[in-house]
Amino acid sequence: MAQDQELPGDRFHGVEHRSATSSGNIVGRIVAIMARLRDPADGCEWDSVQTFATIAPYTIEEAYEVADAIARGDMADLKDELGDLLLQVVFHSRIAEEAGLFDLHDVVNAISDKMERRHPHIFGDADDGGHHLWEQVKAAERRAKPGQTGALAGVALGLPALARAEKLQKRAARVGFDWPDATGPRAKIDEELGEVEAASETERLEEVGDLLFSVVNWARHLGIDPEAALRAANAKFEQRFATMEAEDPSFADRSLADKETAWSRAKNSPLP
Fold first, then answer.
1. Which stretches does DSSP call E strand in 110-245?
2. Where are the beta strands (DSSP E) in the chain?
3. d(Cα 154, Cα 139) in Å, to the nearest integer?
4. Which DSSP string corresponds to 166-185?
């Protein structure tokens, strides 16, 4: 790759920085900014000491802020949040580049190769296509990775618990381990409720987890995204609680009976 003029901090640990500031590369500016921020001598004292592990929570947070902007239909905010998420990709790539692992060019090339590989009916010579081909290619990719041979292999630990439960259940369902319809997981919820009620204090954590797992399973059979359903319930609760507080500045000091009455009024108020 042709090298542009070297920027401050372009060389770390003997690794030559492949600058992305060539003409036509729209992300070149942010790549150069990150290289400057990471300069151990003249960069930002915070940015320069970050690691994959310390940045990971911010990456997850930014992804949620993108989803939040979409849910609110705020396109101006979405533009900003997508920029923040892109910064996370650039940040991780720069840390990797300094360690001689890979750089942003490698990240972009890898995802480009993957998208072409997973769409052989679009970019290759496969006669038929669709989601089944995508899943077949993904499964082959998982099998090619060390220790990734089981049906549940590769489900990211960093996923939100509800989303990960649903993904694990879908993977199990692909190999035939699933209820035939929604009646099975619905009955399981009653069973798990009974086990929670009968559990000792030390057993409750596990039993409540089983109950939540069963609720996710039922939602999946009903065609409902449990993560989206809970987000919607959270938003509804926030709005109704805010309505109660707005109607009564002394809400916190009211009796529980008064609060229940206020809650009933809020429930009957139309949501924005």
1. none
2. 11-12, 15-16
3. 10
4. HHHHHHHHHTT-S-SSTHHH
Q: Which two tokens stand for residue 43?
A: 């960069």
Structure tokens given for 265: 């009024």
Residue 11: strand, helix, or coil: strand
Nearest in space to 105 (alpha carbons), one of 115, 116, 94, 121:
94
| Calpha distance 129→252 (Å, rounded) | 58
Distance CA 189, CA 193 (A): 6
CA 227 from centre of chain: 11
Q: Which amino acid is at 249?
A: P
User: Which two three-digit tokens encode residue 11?
Assistant: 């060389």
Q: Which residues of the chain have pLDDT under 70?
A: 1-24, 126-148, 271-272
Return d(Cα 246, Cα 16) in angstroms, integer: 58
Sign of the Cα torsion 83, 86, 92, 98 reads negative
Paired sense of beta strands 15-16 and 11-12, if any:
antiparallel
The string of pLDDT tens digits covering residues 171-212 is: 999 999 999 999 999 999 999 999 999 999 999 999 999 999
> With contact defined as beta carbons under 8 Å apart, do 7 and 19 qualify?
yes
Got the DSSP string for 255-271? Answer: -HHHHHHHHHHHHHSPP
